[in-house]
Amino acid sequence: MKIENKLKIANLSKQLQEIVNKTYDFLKEINRNDLVESLKSDLEALKKQEVLKVAFVGQYSSGKSTIISALTGNKDIAIGANVTTDKAKGYEWNNIVLVDTPGILAGVNEKHDEATKEVLKSCDLIIYVLTSQLFDDVIFENFIDLAYNQHFKDKMLIAINKMSMETGEYEALRDNYLASIKTIFKERNYEFDYNVAFIDAQDYLDGENESEEELVQLSHFNEFISDLNNFVSDKGLIQKRFDTPIRTLQSNVSAIGLDVIDPNSADVLKQYSNRLAKSKRELSSAVTISLNDFESEIISKGYEVADCIGEIGQEEFERKLDDFNRELSNSITHKQNEIGKLADEENQIIIQEIDGLNNKDSIKLFTQQAKIQGNNVGTGKSVNTENVHKILDFLSKQSNSIAQMTFKEGANLLTKTTQAAGSQMHNIVYNAGKFFGHNFRPWEAVKTAGKIGKFAKVAGPALAFFGVGLDIYQAKKEEKQRKLIQEEKNKFCQSVRSTVKNVRKQLDQEFSSYLRDSYDVKIQEVEDQKMQIIKSEENNSKLSKHLDMLNSEYVNFIEIVNS
Asked: Residue limits of the Dynamin-like helical domain (predicted)?
């Protein structure tokens, strides 16, 4: 199967494994099997944490297993192909778990059991597969249950499979099917805002197996893969799954190479690099906990508003909705302030600890050797004096740049800007951005905050219902009206979840950008410093060349996953 036709995340998984194998071969060549085992353990732990899970649900005999085969290139996959399958089954492939679920069929299996729903909760993406028959009543009810009752809407994508079974031009069929789906949703009082792929997975498999490019094109499967790639990219899953493993390889291998050439330089840079990595982990953990609390708290308050639907009048409901929107806006500002404060506090801690590194015995000895131009250290191993000076100069510059980026200085620089912005938030965001010299301009913070503020107003989908439904419900207590009210509550809850999750996404993106432009830049500078020293050693040209080749692959891969 052609590489450009595959999922990007699968390609990157394969590419990373190739780099890992090259790294292991190098370490075995220099008799460092101990590090091979250590890296295997670390990478396996990371792999378990960062597996992408994609579930296939929907209509019986819609071709879910065929789609999985087309994605993986494995035509022998046989998982959950029968409607009588009583539980979801998974297939592991290139750091991705593809989950097949029992098909939905009227009179046989009309809804997912609780065990399947629990599996779907842990999935990153749910692909709801239909045929040209589209939605019958049973399928539609199942779809709505997953989207609104189970709150999976934001991670659902619709795939209409087996398109070649219908006669007519693809574009006309696609337009007609899409119009029909929108009509079905409108008739049942639901908005339709889902991505839909129109494909034929079997045609794609046949085209690939028989090298029939025209059949591959007619299957439109590549467009489906493009939709999946866009989803993965939009969720930031590429960086989450690949950045840490590749940096783990880079740091360990460069440290080994430097240790062979100059163990004292290796020890000093390792201490500095480890402290940066530790600070990044601790700050990331604190921010994640903070954002999780924000998301949970706001969604819970939104649900409290939803509970009022059918219980109070329209005017009172509108007041509660306005109150909720104001609280959401205020919470966003508060959360940005909190993240900025967390970053600033961590900055002050790392400044103190890096200053403390200079007073450690190993660093003092290192400094003394530079001063007396000695050729031997206490361990009996030789030391390159030029390397000593390079490291001291490097650390001196880093320490100075960090020490200058205090919160107080950032506030002084921002006096006029914060007055114009009218908010302490901009002061904190700017100061956090200044950490390690990252130029996060205040007007960019204003622009970002403005976008979030505009987006963070939850529409009131329930309002239209009050005029036609509430009086009837109160007068007749009919089951139909109770169902309508519950549907409106579900839709409102989904609106709340979608809004809050999109706000969370923007806050995550802001913070990720900050990490890339501050911590990651400094960590990479340490790696570059290691490689400069390694390449300067003429007596180890073979080792230097091999390390340089590996490091180039690490750097290229880091650029890909962060682009």
From this structure: 400-510
